[in-house]
Each structure stands twice: as structure tokens, then as C-alpha cells.
């Protein structure tokens, strides 16, 4: 008892738990959870590949039961559970998990819908051709070896790995207190970066990212905010933002549908479909009539049918915002470096693979050199023996046994290895033909030895060999990128999926609104009838047509002095001749409330102003940021005294001039600064003094920065002209104006006034929906007292309703023309 007592040492349980837990943690980290930086494999994956090769299951052999593979791994190399091995085997066979699968599986290996793989007894397995490149030339001892768990067998510490598996296939694992999460990349891109680093060892990560554009997931998708990837690759950790890919199709009857063709990496497709269905049921996504999963072996296809009048871009934005079609991939480049966990940046990862391959090639070449030197020595012994054939025969005749013959061969200055080889020679090798073969092989071996020695001695030749092998791998296994990389930031207020393009927004008097691409209206000659732009109901007329961008906000100002807001892309797109959508379906108008003016706004800046001009000549300007929070029920823009109404609304900079025109052709021009800045609810001040019975036809902003500015004036009957702005005398606010357009029976009352940009186009839209697009340069430049020339041919009862400018450089219609 005393001797036992002497061996017992008191230890704090806290100390022992800490020590034991650290041992356990390191065992998990090194032995199970983290990949090695050199071959990108965790121990279980490495053992699976090695065991399959040991069974002779190459890419050209028959598949064998997975149970046999798992049993081989468990019995020889990996003393853990069957489930752990089979799960790892399954993942290496899934083409939606591995960018370049290493296992060729036959049977049910699970699905992107989250279906479990079939039982181990039902699936079959063999190596892929690419996996063979991980195990190539193991017989040449290119890597270090270790004993297995019971010291009965040898297994490789790391695989030779001819390609950078860690980057191209990625890795994931959860250890104790740490985790690894590396996305897959494109084979060609990674190898191009490796070659760049081999040729230019001082390359920065910025240089390497010229070749590696970003992750390349097996499920495709879209990586956005790619500019943040530089910091992620530098730090070895960060987040990568991912979107699924949604296409737009046209179904029967011109109805739109959305089709999901790619989903974010590691996201369950069936759960996305379930999410969408629940959102439709709960009313959180509007505009969808049904969702169907039509996926097949050809690829993912989830079809989303849209309701009539739904805006595809808006639904896309809702899908991205509310479902897992938008997700974040956590990037943690934690790997084992010489058996220790370490976070590496991109360059360190690539350099670690290069260093590994250099050691592999050196060991392989050393092995080949030793084999070649041994063979050359044997060949030299053959040549000595053949040159002394008579002596050789005499030695054999006078020797009682092989041992004595071997000893007697020393007379020919042959060592033991050469003597043994000669004793094992066959008689046919003494023929003249065989002698020539031996001499030729000896010369070839000599040349081979010189080449191998040069590779070991001269680093440039070793690196050249490494690059040749990498180029061959890229050529044989490389494929096009699947994941799209976008540099821009996305905020999911629908804009991310919308192309910013020039559109026209048309509004009718009865409240039908639509948007069409401005390129739908091609340039035509002056004094022609124009083409249909909208399908109007009887008695309905065009109220306004404006030019905007899809990402601009459109302000709708009503007869009750309120403003509502919609993004241009939220207005349903129509064909050139379609009627459009009732505005009451898009905004919550009050009873007897009608839209009287629309205008586009880029952003609600405090340095710009919303300027309003009424039919009675009252003008006011309010900072745009006062309208930045427009509720669904609208926001007050001002107070109008009956029977006054809004004539024109436009954006001003605070550093220009205002022009206001009347129906009878008078125009007043004054400095914007003459108008005091007012609040939203203010009534305004007099902008122009009107003659009895007259009213304002239109108004516009004239920036000081546009030299040689001209303004367009158009009459109701389609006559118009351009006039130099300097022709209009600068007055004070509240003046009566000067003649700017000769109103007569031929021209009709004035429609409005518009400043023109050099090279812009003009769209004239009549009350009955006829539209004509003209090059502004084709409109005559005339003095202010004329009526101009006829711009468009109108029917007797038709009149011009709206004029709008399409600025230059927004589309390629001129080239098309």
C-alpha cells in the first residue's frame, strides 16, 4: 500500500481537465476536422482515396460496393465510425458539393434538395480520373509515410496532389473552438495564378486576383460586391455574398414568368421552393400566381408564374430579399501547416502548394535517378560480360554452383549487383539484336540521368517541369467558370437585378400608366404621322409622357396637391401599343384624386429643389429632401386655391433660371433665386402675371452651365421651333413676359417649353397616343415671334399632349438607324 501510495500524485481537477481537453482538441483538429494545406484533404478523405486505389478501383475499372470501400478504410486506416467515412465518401461524389468530384459514384448519392444518400450497401464507387492525379506515382515515394493505427500498415502523410485541391474544391470542417470554410475555385484560374507566382515570386495578392476572379461554386450563382474579395483574400477570412440566378421568360399570352436556374452554394433547393410558397400564402410576396419545381438531370428549373400586371423586377427583388436565394458564405481559410492550424492569405495558400509540389518532384526525380543509375550499372555489367563472352562461358563451366560463379565474376571487375544480373540473364540476350538493344538502352539511361541531375541541380528546370505539369492539368480538367462575379454593391430594394436603362413613362387622363423602352420609338422624319404609343379607351387622352431611367423615382403629383412615389421599374412594362395598368392598382389615390403631373427624380438631395408652377402662374420651390419619406398615402406638396391646378413640376439646382410660358405664347425668364425657398405646405408666389383668360402652358429650368442653350416651343397642332434662350429678355419674377411663340389657328395654343441638350431627341405624343421621335437638330432654329414649322402630321381632332427630351448617349438607336 505504501508503494502504491508513493505513486499517487495529487492533481487539480481543473488542471487535468484543461490538459486533457487540449489534447483532445488537438487530436480533433489535426486528425479529423481541418484539411492539410498541401493536398487540401482531411485524413478521412485522404484515406478513402488511398484505400480505393489499393483496391484497384481506377476510373477505368468497374464500380465496387461502397460498403467494401468503407470497410477497407475502417479496417486498415481510419478507426472511427462507419457513418463518418461514408458521409465523407458521399460528399466527394456529389457534383453539387465538390466543384471537381473525386469519387465516381453509381447509385443514389443524395440530391441538392437535401435527400439522403442510399444505404451503404446500395451505392457503388470508384475513383474519378482527376482523383488519380492526387495519387499519381505514389510508388516512387514522393511523400512521407506513417504507420496506421495498429502499426501494421503504411499510409501516406499527404498525397502528391498534382493540382491545388484545397482551392479548387474548397473545404469545410468544424473543430474544437475553430472552423474551416473555404469556397471552391475555378481550376484554370487557380493554375494561372500559380504559374504567375512561380514566374514572379514577389507578386502581390492584387496581381493574383487578376487571374482568380473569385470563388466558382459548383451550383453557379452570382457573387456580388466582389471588390471586397481583395480584403477577404488578404486576411484569410471574411464573407462572400451570393445570389441565385433568376431568368425572365415570356409565356403564352405575353405573360411573364421567372425561372430560377441556379441557387447559392450549400442551399437546399426544395426549401427555397417551400419558402416561396409560404411567402405567397402569407401575402408577403405579391404578384406570383404559382411556383413549380421542374428540375431534372439537365439542371435546376424552378418556374414562378406571375400574375397579370406584375413587375418581374419587383418580384425578383422580393425573392432575393425574403428567401435564401440571397445568402452569405463565410470564408475562413484555417488549414493545417506542418500539423498546426493557421489562417493563411491567398498567396500563402498558393505558395504552400508550390513548395509541396517542388518537394514531391524532387523526391520523385531522386527516385527516378536512383532507379536509372541502378539500371545503368546493370547495363554496364551486361556490356562488360558481352565483351568478354569467352571468359564468361569459361567461368560458368568451371564453377560448381551460382555462388562460386558470382565470386569468379569478380575477375571481370563486376560488383555483386552486376554479377547477380548476369547470372539471371537468359541465353537469347546474347544474340546480336539483344546486344544492340542493351547498348542503346545504356545510352538512353545515361542521357536520362543527366537530365534528372539537371532538374535537381538547376531550380529553373525544376520549376519549368512543375509548370508543364500544371498546364497539362488545366488543359485536361479545366472548364469555364460557373459563378458570375459582379463588382457592384446591391441593397435588395429591387435595384440589384434591374438593368438601368432609358425608358418612357406614359400616363393617360383616365389614369392608365405604363413604361416602355425608349428604343421602342425609332427616329423618324419631321412632318410624318408618327406611330401608336398607347391603346386608349374611348374619350381617354394622353396626359403626360416623360423620359426616365428604370432606377429613378417617379413622383406622381395629384389634383389635391399630394405626391406619391414609385420606382420607374415598379411601373409595369408594356408594349408600345398596350394600354397600361390603372394607376390605382399601384398607388393609394384618394377619392376623386387624379394624377396631374409626373416627373423623374434621381435622389432626394437637400441641394436640389422641387419647383412647382400652377395654371394661374404661382410658383414655389422646396428642397427635395422634404419629400424623401413619401408614405404609401402620399405627402402634401402645397395648397392650391380653387380653381387653380398644377401646370408643371421640375427639378432645379438653385443656380439657374426659370422660364414660364402661357397658352397664348408669352414667355417670362427670370433667376431661380427670385423664388424664396419654402416649405411643402406653402402656397407660393407669383411667377408670371397673366392676361385675363390666359393660363400657364408649361415651365422649365435653364441651367447657367449650358452655353448656346436653345428652347423648344410646340403648339397643340404640331408646329414647333427651336429658339436661342438669349432671345428672351431676362426679367424679374412676376413679369408679363415677351412673345415666345406666335399662336394662331394653324399652330394652336402652346403646349409647353423645353430646354434642349445638343444631340438630344424629342418625343412628341398626341392626345390620341400618336408618338413621333425627332432628332432635335432637325427642328428649325427660328426667332421667338414665329410659329415654327410642322413637326408632326395630326388628325383633325387630335392635339399634342406632351413633349419630352431623350438625352443623347442613352441608347444605340442612332447606330440602328
Mean pLDDT: 87
Radius of gyration: 41 Å
Low-confidence stretches: 812-817
Terminal-residue CA separation:
108 Å
- Counting DSSP H or I runs of 4 or more residues, the number of helices is 19
CATH topology grouping of the domain at 499-816? Neuraminidase
The secondary structure category is: alpha+beta
Determine and state the CATH class of the domain at 499-816: Mainly Beta
Query: What is the tally of beta strands?
Result: 42
Dominant shape: elongated
Strand-residue proportion: 25-35%
Task: Tell me the CATH architecture of the domain at 499-816.
Answer: 6 Propeller
Helix content: 25-40%
Largest sheet: 5 strands, mixed
CATH homologous superfamily label of the domain at 499-816: DNA gyrase/topoisomerase IV, subunit A, C-terminal
Explain this structure.
This protein is α+β, with helices and mostly antiparallel strands and about 800 residues long. Among the domains are: about 245-325, Gyrase A, domain 2 (2-Layer Sandwich), CATH 3.30.1360; about 355-475, Topoisomerase, domain 3; about 500-815, DNA gyrase/topoisomerase IV, subunit A, C-terminal (Neuraminidase), CATH 2.120.10. About 30% of the residues lie in helices and about 25% in strands. The chain has 19 helices and 42 strands. Helix 15 (about 400-410) packs across helix 16.
Amino acid at each position: 500500500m505504501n508503494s502504491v501510495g508513493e505513486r499517487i500524485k495529487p492533481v487539480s481537477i481543473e488542471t487535468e481537465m484543461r490538459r486533457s481537453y487540449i489534447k483532445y482538441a488537438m487530436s480533433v483538429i489535426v486528425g479529423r476536422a481541418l484539411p492539410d494545406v498541401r493536398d487540401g484533404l482531411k485524413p478521412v478523405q485522404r484515406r478513402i482515396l488511398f484505400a480505393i486505389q489499393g483496391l484497384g478501383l481506377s476510373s477505368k475499372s468497374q464500380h465496387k460496393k461502397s460498403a467494401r470501400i468503407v470497410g477497407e478504410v475502417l479496417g486498415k486506416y481510419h478507426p472511427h465510425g462507419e457513418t463518418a467515412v461514408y458521409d465523407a465518401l458521399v460528399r466527394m461524389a456529389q457534383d453539387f458539393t465538390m466543384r471537381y468530384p473525386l469519387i465516381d459514384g453509381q447509385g443514389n448519392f443524395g440530391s441538392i434538395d437535401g435527400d439522403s444518400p442510399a444505404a451503404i450497401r446500395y451505392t457503388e464507387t470508384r475513383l474519378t480520373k482527376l482523383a488519380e492525379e492526387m495519387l499519381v506515382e505514389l510508388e516512387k515515394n514522393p511523400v512521407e509515410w506513417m504507420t496506421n493505427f495498429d502499426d501494421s500498415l503504411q499510409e501516406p502523410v499527404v498525397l502528391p496532389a498534382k493540382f491545388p485541391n484545397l482551392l479548387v474544391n474548397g473545404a469545410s470542417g468544424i473543430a474544437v473552438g475553430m472552423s474551416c470554410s473555404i469556397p471552391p475555385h475555378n481550376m484554370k484560374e487557380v493554375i494561372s495564378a500559380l504559374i504567375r507566382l512561380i514566374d514572379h515570386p514577389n507578386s502581390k495578392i492584387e496581381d493574383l486576383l487578376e487571374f482568380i476572379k473569385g470563388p466558382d461554386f459548383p451550383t453557379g450563382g452570382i457573387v456580388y460586391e466582389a471588390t471586397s474579395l481583395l480584403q477577404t483574400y488578404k486576411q484569410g477570412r471574411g464573407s462572400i455574398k451570393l445570389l441565385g440566378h433568376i431568368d425572365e421568360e415570356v409565356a403564352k399570352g405575353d405573360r411573364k414568368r421567372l425561372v430560377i436556374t441556379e441557387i447559392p452554394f450549400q442551399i437546399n433547393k426544395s426549401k427555397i421552393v417551400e419558402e416561396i410558397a409560404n411567402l405567397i400564402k402569407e401575402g408577403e410576396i405579391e404578384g406570383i400566381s404559382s411556383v413549380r419545381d421542374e428540375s431534372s438531370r439537365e439542371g435546376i428549373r424552378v418556374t414562378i408564374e406571375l400574375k397579370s400586371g406584375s413587375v418581374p423586377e419587383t418580384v425578383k427583388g422580393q425573392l432575393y430579399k425574403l428567401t435564401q436565394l440571397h445568402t452569405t458564405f463565410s470564408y475562413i481559410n484555417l488549414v493545417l501547416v506542418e500539423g498546426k492550424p493557421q489562417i493563411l492569405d491567398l498567396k500563402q495558400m498558393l505558395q504552400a502548394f508550390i513548395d509541396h509540389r517542388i518537394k514531391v518532384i524532387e523526391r520523385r526525380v531522386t527516385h527516378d535517378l536512383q532507379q536509372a543509375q541502378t539500371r545503368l550499372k546493370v547495363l554496364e555489367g551486361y556490356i562488360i560480360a558481352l565483351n568478354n563472352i569467352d571468359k564468361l562461358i569459361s567461368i560458368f563451366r568451371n564453377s560448381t554452383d551460382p555462388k562460386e560463379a558470382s565470386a569468379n565474376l569478380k575477375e571481370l571487375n563486376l560488383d555483386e549487383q552486376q554479377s547477380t544480373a548476369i547470372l539471371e540473364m537468359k541465353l537469347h540476350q546474347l544474340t546480336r539484336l539483344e546486344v544492340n538493344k542493351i547498348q542503346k538502352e545504356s545510352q538512353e539511361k545515361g542521357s536520362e540521368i543527366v537530365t534528372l541531375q539537371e532538374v535537381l541541380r538547376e531550380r529553373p528546370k525544376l520549376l519549368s517541369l512543375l509548370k508543364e505539369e500544371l498546364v497539362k492539368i488545366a488543359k485536361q480538367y479545366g472548364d469555364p467558370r460557373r459563378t458570375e462575379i459582379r463588382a457592384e454593391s446591391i441593397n435588395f430594394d429591387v435595384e440589384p437585378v434591374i438593368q438601368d436603362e432609358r425608358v418612357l413613362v406614359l400616363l393617360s387622363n383616365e389614369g392608365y400608366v405604363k413604361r416602355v423602352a425608349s428604343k421602342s420609338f425609332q427616329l423618324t422624319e419631321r412632318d410624318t404621322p408618327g406611330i401608336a404609343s398607347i391603346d386608349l379607351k374611348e374619350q381617354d387622352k394622353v396626359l403626360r409622357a416623360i423620359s426616365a431611367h428604370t432606377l429613378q423615382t417617379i413622383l406622381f403629383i395629384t389634383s389635391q396637391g399630394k405626391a406619391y412615389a414609385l420606382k420607374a421599374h415598379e411601373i409595369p412594362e408594356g408594349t408600345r401599343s398596350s394600354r397600361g395598368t390603372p394607376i390605382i392598382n399601384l398607388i393609394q389615390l384618394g377619392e376623386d384624386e387624379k394624377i396631374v403631373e409626373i416627373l423623374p427624380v434621381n435622389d432626394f438631395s437637400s441641394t436640389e429643389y422641387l419647383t412647382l408652377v400652377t395654371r394661374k402662374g404661382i410658383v414655389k420651390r422646396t428642397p427635395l429632401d422634404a419629400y424623401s419619406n413619401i408614405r404609401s398615402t402620399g405627402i402634401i406638396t402645397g395648397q392650391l386655391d380653387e380653381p387653380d391646378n398644377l401646370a408643371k413640376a421640375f427639378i432645379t439646382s438653385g443656380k439657374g433660371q426659370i422660364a414660364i410660358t402661357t397658352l397664348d405664347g408669352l414667355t417670362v425668364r427670370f433667376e431661380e433665386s427670385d423664388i424664396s425657398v419654402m416649405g411643402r405646405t406653402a402656397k407660393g408666389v407669383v411667377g408670371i402675371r397673366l392676361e385675363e383668360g390666359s393660363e400657364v402652358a408649361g415651365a422649365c429650368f435653364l441651367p447657367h452651365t449650358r452655353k448656346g442653350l436653345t428652347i423648344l416651343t410646340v403648339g397643340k397642332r404640331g408646329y414647333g421651333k427651336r429658339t436661342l434662350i438669349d432671345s428672351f429678355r431676362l426679367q424679374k419674377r412676376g413679369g408679363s413676359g415677351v412673345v415666345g411663340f406666335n399662336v394662331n389657328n394653324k399652330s394652336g395654343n402652346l403646349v409647353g417649353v423645353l430646354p434642349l441638350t445638343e444631340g438630344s431627341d424629342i418625343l412628341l405624343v398626341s392626345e390620341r397616343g400618336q408618338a413621333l421621335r425627332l432628332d432635335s437638330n432637325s427642328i428649325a432654329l427660328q426667332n421667338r415671334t414665329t410659329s415654327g414649322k410642322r413637326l408632326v402630321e395630326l388628325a383633325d381632332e387630335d392635339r399634342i399632349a406632351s413633349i419630352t427630351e431623350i438625352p443623347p448617349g442613352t441608347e444605340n438607336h442612332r447606330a440602328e438607324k
